[in-house]
Amino acid sequence: MVDQNKDLTVLSAGGLFLNEDALSLATTRPGAAIRLLNFEVSQFGGYRRISGYADFDASYPTLSGLGQVLGVWIHNDTVFGARRNAGDSTGSLGTNPFAVTNESATVTVTHSSHGMAVGTKVIFAGSAAIGGLTINTTEWEIASVPTSNSYTFAHTSAATSSVAAGGGSSVTYSYSYLYSLYKYVSGVGWGSDLTNGDRSTIGVTKLRKSPHTFTGSDVMVVTDGVGRPFRHSDTTYIDIFDRTGTADTDTESQLSNAISSTNGSAVVNVVHTLHGLSPGDTVKFTNVNVNIGGVNINGTTHTVHTVADSHNYTFNLSGASSASSQTTVGGTAINYFYVFLTSAKNIEGAKYTATFSNHQFFAGMTASSNYLVFSAPNTDLRYNVAEGAGKINVGFPIQGIVKFRDSLYVFGKQKISRLVGNSSADFELKEVTEDVGCISPDSIIEIGGDVLFLSADGIRPIQGTARIGDIELETVSKAIQQALLALPASHNLENLCSVVIRDKTQFRYFLPSTSTAVADTEGVIGGLRFADRRVGWEFGQLLGIRAFVADSGLINNQEVVVHGDLDGTIYRQESGDDFDGGEVVSVYATPFLYFNSTERRKAFHKLSLFTRPEGTSTVNVGIAYDWDDPLIPVPNTYALGTANALLRYNVTGGTYNSTFTYDATSSPVLETNIEGSARSLSLIITSTGTQSPYSISGFSLQYLELGYR
Hints:
Strand order of the largest sheet: 8-15-11-12-13-10-9-14
Low-confidence stretches: 645-666
Largest sheet: 8 strands, antiparallel
CATH architecture of the largest domain: Sandwich
Number of helices: 3
Structural class: mainly beta
């Protein structure tokens, strides 16, 4: 009988397949998977259970502030993170500041001259319950501002009675409406805010960035979709206006004692040689060391009123000055920020940015969603048309931009164009397609010599083929198209974030939500197994990584992957065996293999599982028979354990002559006798807990052919 046994050996490769029938998959791709969760393409062949993630710095895990991480990136060997502030303004309210109406969830708050806007977050303390509602400790969002002395928010419950004035006399408030950018410093933590302390967080959901060196400085340009873009280096921060003068060497020189005012007049005169301004332009100043006309003009936008000549202009205060007249004051280091009406286009509120042909490009402004705006050449701080800046109407709302080879690709939801050229004199917009677009801005990534993006029918590449000017857009994700087509209905794709792990030629799409637990957060993983990028991609699914923003980059010449979560923590991926102490659930289910006959029964005797362990773990093998026929009995799950790691696999932390053990056998092959007979068989290989990663290279099955039934 032994000599009549047969065997089948299968190499694990092909990735997850959801769009192919069971019969053809078993024949053409037996090493593929019909379920592949938290596995990646192994660099040593087969599938590897992914590594875990842990605090980037266990001593300083969390950014200061409240809410989710708004941005995280690696620049010049350093991690930067952004988060909404806690307590931008604090104080006490007057007696009984709250009013509610029976059966309504609206709460009206009285706060004299509060200065708040819709979208501001607020936390109260010290309040008595009012109308059956508890007000304290919960963070609320201002929903309306009826007057300068009142605002409203929506409670999670309706009041059970009407109260015209309540809450008591000890109510305190804490408003949150700005965000800060922090630089990580080893041994210190997240340091102090790099910004000017005036970045509004109202309406900001995430920050996007684009590094460049074309100005001679190694900087990161950042957009938040609401305010003006900014740029930073390791130590400097600059808001990007049409013209800027600060102490930073990349900007123009500061003004010196340039401001004058007159008692009884609202007019303020500014001396600035060759200012280039016209009436209607806007100006802003910081670092003015005195009040002007009795008013602090720092950080406030002013409109140019008159232009006496090329060296003098005026703007008006909100009222006539009651202070003494002032002549050429303000200090020797006045920072200025100008916006010209004749500039290319206002870049305030830009969502997307990229560098192309030594210009900085912006897009996604709400007021001009069809426009690309670009800087003057060789600068990211000048946007005057006369200097070579400009704007281009692409004809559709822009969903994202990316530089790829000699073009700047511009994505809409249903169209793609590309910009070629070197300057405003020869920039030319060319159509790529009018039938395909990008449905998620942050799905656009560059990896393995391609740009990938999520379209309405799957993940597509932009491949420059051998034919000059030809662009390949054929989808590479047909294997998981069923899952991708369901994403818009089940997830907010504006929340999608992505990261590229270049060492593995791998990308990850994360699909977070503020209402989804970490353990239930889904994602997509893709890896390139073969050099042919048309057929080399393999995919799987992720579960348990809730990344709202993510990035990868080099720190001390090693690739580091980071992400930010809802609670303000910065995590490092590819670190450890578990998900911040939580379980890693992994599943690899093979196709139903029918061994050349769908009708003939087989008696199964032995399974050999070829693995590459990286430490102690337990692999559970379940078996399903006859395409999950519920009438066919199945054996219990087989548990196969490992211990330690083989040094020859170069596992970090391995020791000389260290070994692993499977049921007292030192071998990378897990073997077990199995039971049952059926026409077809599928292996379901799973692991849970906080155990070490491992790879599955393939498997072998011994069986005996029986008769037909």
